Amino acid sequence: MDFRYPIGKFAHTGEVTQAQRKQWILDIAELPQQAREAVKGLSEEQLCMPYREGGWMLKQVIHHMADSHMNSVIRFKLALTEDTPAIRPYDETRWAELSDSRELDIEVSLQLLAALHQRWTALLNTLSDEDYAKQFYHPASKETMRLDYCVGLYAWHGKHHVAHITSLRSRTGI
């Protein structure tokens, strides 16, 4: 197994169906509880373990999900209110090295994920097919991305990082 991608890389080709989108929205809604369950019972020492050699500590993974998904919600709102806006990239690796990601209790980001995902799914459940066809431009990757595709990408993203935690726990017995 490639510990960097315990569930594989995100891949979706073709049209995003309403059924697929509905499943992805459910995945996004369930992520906060899955993240909470993944770290349940871990000590501070265990939360400071990297999920793989050279990887982030488990607590950094939790804080990263909050950072990443906050950025995603903002990107969705920009795309919904502007005509193919260029979004603001950020250096996720450098963000993960900031003191809040390395030292702050994960409960803060677990609560943030719960509130953020509640709001995000409320928004996602009200969007029309036309809304889901809206796009933003990512200057770092030089890609224009549709919102329906991004729902899938972030549904995968949450599962991907939860799997970082659960696969480490499985491998080490913690």
UniProtKB/TrEMBL annotation:
It holds the Pfam family DinB_2. Zn(2+) binds at H64, H157, H161. InterPro entries: DinB-like, DinB/YfiT-like, Put_metal_dep_hydrolase_YfiT. It is found in: Cytoplasm. Binds 1 zinc ion per subunit. It is an enzyme of class 3 (hydrolase). Belongs to the metal hydrolase YfiT family. This is Putative metal-dependent hydrolase GCM10008014_23450.
